[in-house]
């Protein structure tokens, strides 16, 4: 019985994901999800309270990937001047970004542009704010480790950089014509540009 229940739940999530990707959250139909999953509409509510809960479950993997990206930013090994010069650090950043895009391209597009009406519709603004706080904490940790660094950087600048990063993700996922090699070239260029700018700003 438990196996059958879990199988039904997975079918609902699989069909719901397809429906969300095609129509966005607002226009996705619970009736269509019920019909295509083979689970009666009333029975769906035995698994999920509402459409929003289904949506959040569908998006849980990409949300976890974003969370990991934020956590990794302040990881002890990144509190190091080598981030400005070491090609291995930059290679990791490139691979992390490409991994996120390659694995969750459609989910990212859905999350950033077609989540209106859901509890995740403000994700972009909330993530920018969280990234701003993460950036401020990162500067403080770098200053503690390297007192000679300049950490007197305006919060609005950090906020703007965080916003730009989210817009970059949005640009990449909406340009379906981009080849993987073109995305990799762009990310490499952006990281080189960004790293040089932070190095000069922090007087590293």
UniProtKB/TrEMBL annotation:
Limits of the HTH tetR-type domain: 6-66
This protein's name: TetR/AcrR family transcriptional regulator
A Pfam family of this chain: TetR_N
DNA-binding region(s), chain positions: 29-48
SUPFAM superfamilies: Homeodomain-like
Gene Ontology MF terms in the entry: DNA binding
The entry's keywords: DNA-binding
